[in-house]
Specification:
The complex is a heterodimer of chains A (124) and B (702). The termini of chain A are close together. Chain A is mainly α and 124 residues long. Chain A has helices at residues 8-24, 29-49, 57-82, 87-111. Helices cover 72% and strands 0% of the residues of chain A. Chain B has 702 residues and is mainly alpha-helical. Chain B is 60% helix and 4% strand. Chain B contains 29 helices and five strands. A five-stranded mixed sheet of chain B has the order 2-1-3-5-4, sandwiched between helices. In chain B, α6 (142-161) runs antiparallel to α7, α21 (489-496) runs antiparallel to α22 (511-531) and α26 (619-627) crosses α27. The chains are: A mainly alpha (124), B mainly alpha (702). Chains A and B meet through α2, α3 and α4 of A and α1, α10, α11, α13 and α16 of B.
Amino acid sequence: MTPLGRPWPALILASCAAVALSTWLEATQAVRTVSTFWFFLTCPGLAVVGALGIRDRLAEGLLAVALSLALGTAVAVFMVLVRVWSPDAGLAVLIGFSLLGGALQVVLRARGSLAPPAAPRLFE
Amino acid sequence: MTRGGKRLFGFVIASSAAILMRQRRQGRAVAHDSPVSAGRGRVSPSNPGSAALSPRAPRGGEAPSRGGRAAAPRTVVLPAARTAGPAVLAAPAEAAALAAAWRTFLGPLLPVLAAVLIWVIGLQDVDIDDMTDLGLVSVLPVSVYAAVAILTVSFCLGLRRGDTHWLVPALHVAALIVVIHGTPAILYDTLRYSWAWKHVGIVDYIQRHGSVDPGLSTLQAYQSWPGFFALNALVTEVAGFGSPLSFASWGPVFFNVLFAAGVAFVVRSLTADVRLVWLAVWLFCTANWVGQDYFSPQAMSYFLYLAIVGACLRWFRPSAVSPRERLGRSMFRRRAVALFDRIVTSGAAAPRVADRERRWQRRALFAIVTMLCAAVVVSHQLTPFMLILGLTALVLFQACTVRSLPLIVAALTAAWISFMAIDFLKGNLYWIVDSIGKLNFGSSTLANLGEASPEQVFVSYTARGLTVLAFGLGFLGAVRRLRNGWFDLPAMLLMVAPGFMLWGNAYGGEILFRVYLFSLPFLAFLAAGLLYPTLQAGRSRATPVLAVGLSAVLLAGLFVVYYGKERMFHFTKDEVAAANVLYGTAPPGSVFVAGTQNYPWAFRNYEHYHYVSLAEQPAEVRRSVIASPVTGIARLVAENGGGRGYLIVTRSQKAEEEMTGVLRTGSLERVEKAAESSPLFLTLYRGPDAEVFALTGQKAPE
């Protein structure tokens, strides 16, 4: 599957919906745990990295996880330093960021700006 | 088999076949574009690796030159394409796909399933109460070692086959991580490592206060670098947990999976040889005995470090145009630059298999890398310096084109220290300055060997041996790769660069271990190069045997060293219950006296209390307290704030006393007995593994 065909926007949308619903509707602990960890580990980073058209799945996935951790850290540290600690607000910011990135990917695809660069995929 | 089982089996077979068919289609597509399949290379089903060419290999599969800048076909034939022989192609597509699925995916996964099954069954018989000073090794059943042996043999044989799906080695590595790092999480009922409990305490602080206080004297470094803790406080709240204790036990498994992926990413940027990548990942997992993988800021920062370095090697490598070509074509200048070019940049620019990205993509990648650096800077005090050293080495030797990156990390670090960590710096500047320029080779855990138990001496020497072995293998691998025309300069730089921290900071006696940890990915890569120096090498029957032997030695050392202190690192439910009684009873301002700080502490309302450890007192104070415990403890309480005094003595403290010699053996037993018999102490909790006493009516004796 080429980057053009990867379902990142749909995945981001579904993950955002899952974490929002499970958190704010107080779903069972198991559902809430899975959706929260999945979201914090993938979505904010994937929203950015998915727009780059990286063909190597390992590189794309690893960068998405690393950036997700970094963005989550940035939001949390900002709330701590400014003393506006609010987990709900922090989650909302990250969900908004992820949705924005997902939307950007859709726009880039529509414009054809996400054409995949030619490169071998050694891990596929 | 039930109907559901049959459906599941059918689904697995069909899915595997679909994956393999897709892989084969892609493989053929790549093979058609490849210079190898176009007639310049030979495809031999009996010798599957023969068609794979290195990006630097010259045409016809000749050995690359020492300089290594031959025409670089950047395509590697996928394994599945190589295995498609005429007989297979003639068969119906579905049957061939099923056969291929079995041969390259399902079949090689059977040993993984068997190993995991054996491991799970074996864990039923473990009684951790029987553990000796050798750690978990002393109680693990043979089946656990059998599981690891099966994984090792299967993994090494799979590397030689060369036609397996990439998920096969990945799942071998994942299974190894689960077996090694999941075992303590399953066997123990509680979070291991006293440091992890402190980290839970900082998360608890942020959850309660919504901020941090770098001015606090207790655990000040954590308050000054709160990135990891703030993130975990956010995740804990969103996930609906009361505290990270609900998930922190699985930190080692989680972080080791991330580390393995990070190492694969880094090594993948250094070589196109998939066998080398996976063997490096495997060796990294088998030699990572340092134990910095628990619920901690250093674990997250280390993963981010790997991501940053991997991204720099992947997307910010110099182009294939050499400095010789850039600087001009006159004979004199070419000769003048040739030596430098040969020494410095021959390994820096070559095996680049990166995506050919556009300018906006490179800018976006640079922004991402900068963001990762910022996350490291706010999360951990040591990793930014390791990052600066590594990036500076890459920039100086032209292995990274983003020359500003080390400066950016340095500026971010300086800004953060002056903004958030100035209080910490004021309190610790004396020892930081004192250790600059000295060779800080001593170690907090290698010290006092004369006082340690014989088993711990063995563990300590095994750790040293493992470290020396890893560096030796890395050195030999680098030499062998060099003799085969591969000058792995970036790997060598990143292996050596952390070593400069030995002259920069003692880091509480831990710097030696941290240097090893940051060098390890590159040591593993170079050590793997000992067995697979080129794409053409390593196809003899001896190679997997050597790989198995090497892994066996490293794993034996890992089991001894990584599990070597488990008797003191794990805490029973009784010890945790005692700690909960302590924190649930003591009013703010109380003073907690303990034999050592090796118990579950500081995990609840930690800032309300003062902490005193007998082991950290000057020798004369220790002696006087042990000689007359009641008056000695009353004096310690009075000298440390004078609030209500509490004494906690646990099994894990006694284990540390006996294992490391930090206190004379029997000291804590004596203190405990004295408290039990003294009317000045009220027993708040008494269990098989812990006792908590409250000092009543205390007045510090003169």
